[in-house]
Design goal:
With 323 residues, the protein is mainly beta. It has two domains: 213 residues, Jelly Rolls, CATH 2.60.120.10; 79 residues, Sandwich (Jelly Rolls). It contains seven helices and 22 strands. A hairpin with a 2-residue loop joins strand 19 and strand 20. It is globular, with a radius of gyration of 20 Å.
């Protein structure tokens, strides 16, 4: 059987802070209330997305890797990760703020949870007026100061708040405290991990459970990077019909492509699958004689063995991610 560009059926996640924009802006199809996340491509255990169409419909990432190995994920990726898929792709809609949280490193996550760590990046697709992200600290503190701020409910006072707009990009390495503010819609590229240490949650109660959500400060305290950094937002430039670097890390590489007309892509030098996440407009993808459509709010995976393709659009913007 020949591989082809694959769309997956998203998994929709209830969140205490979720809204309606995944449905109203990204045209996601669900009926539940307060859906905060759409997991587009996931190999997280017990939360695996399945192929949505074609001869491979219904297959999970693990099944595809076991069947096609390096042809699916790339030889180097297969040698490194085996049947574990290394990336998780999401769309996130925050109607109210997310908790202040932090993620552990690969080493700590492996030791404590037998999991990957969670380095991630955000690309803002939309933001209400004065909507903000909270990333890192504006004031240098230590563990003792941190504990005092938690006890006094003043931790927000020493964190970096940044008002955002469409196109803003942030890399969130493990150890960096962060939160998505109310009114932000974004795409998230991350390692395959669902390990989050929640450190502050506004003392709110989950309407579904009637209880406050669990905090994880004992786990978080020795994970946090307490340093103040000069800048937290990623600076980048965009040239039309070119793969422009957004975030290149040891865990994933993400570029942005702004399309105006047709653009040929050759991935023969990239020993990895490639994931396209459409964050604006719509585009056509031609691959070995077949045509596929991708529109805002959709994601498609290009198996590693498919090296040549063509993209065409008037005005689409696409995140291009690979290992």
């Amino acid at each position: 059987m020949n591989l082809y560009p694959l769309k997956f059926t998203p998994l929709y996640k209830y969140r205490i802070w979720g809204g309606e924009k995944l449905k109203t802006v990204l045209n996601k199809d669900y009926t539940e209330e307060s859906i905060g996340e759409s997991w587009e491509i996931s190999g997280v255990e017990n939360d695996e997305t399945l192929v949505a169409e074609g001869l491979l419909k219904g297959k999970s990432l693990k099944a595809l890797i076991n069947e096609f190995k390096g042809d699916f994920v790339g030889n180097s990726v297969y040698e490194t990760f085996g049947d574990k898929f290394p990336l998780l792709i999401k769309f996130i809609d925050a109607k109210t703020p997310l908790s202040i949280q932090v993620h552990p490193s690969n080493e700590i996550a492996k030791e404590r949870h037998n999991s990957f760590g969670k380095n991630e990046m955000w690309y803002v697709m939309g933001a209400d007026k004065d909507a903000e992200l909270i990333v890192g600290f504006d004031e240098k503190i230590n563990q003792k100061d941190y504990k005092t701020h938690l006890e006094n409910n003043t931790i927000l006072n020493v964190m970096h708040h940044e008002i955002v707009e469409k196109g803003d990009t942030f890399y969130i390495p493990t150890g960096r405290v962060h939160a998505i503010g109310a009114g932000v819609l974004l795409a998230e590229i991350q390692q395959t991990s669902d390990i989050t240490y929640r450190i502050y949650d506004y003392d709110r109660v989950d309407a579904k459970t009637g209880e406050k959500r669990e905090l994880h400060n004992d786990l978080a305290i020795d994970v946090i990077d307490y340093e103040v950094h000069d800048a937290y937002k990623t600076d980048y430039k965009v040239e039309t019909n070119k793969s422009n670097t957004l975030v290149h890390s040891p865990y994933f590489k993400t570029n942005i492509i702004a399309l105006d007309g047709a653009m040929k892509k050759d991935y023969s030098n990239v020993d990895s699958f490639v994931i396209y996440t459409c964050v604006e407009g719509a585009a056509n993808l031609s691959c070995y004689g077949e045509r596929y459509d991708i529109k805002k709010g959709e994601t498609i995976l290009i198996p590693a063995s498919l090296n040549e393709l063509e993209l065409e659009s008037k005005g689409a913007k696409i995140l291009e991610s690979y290992y």
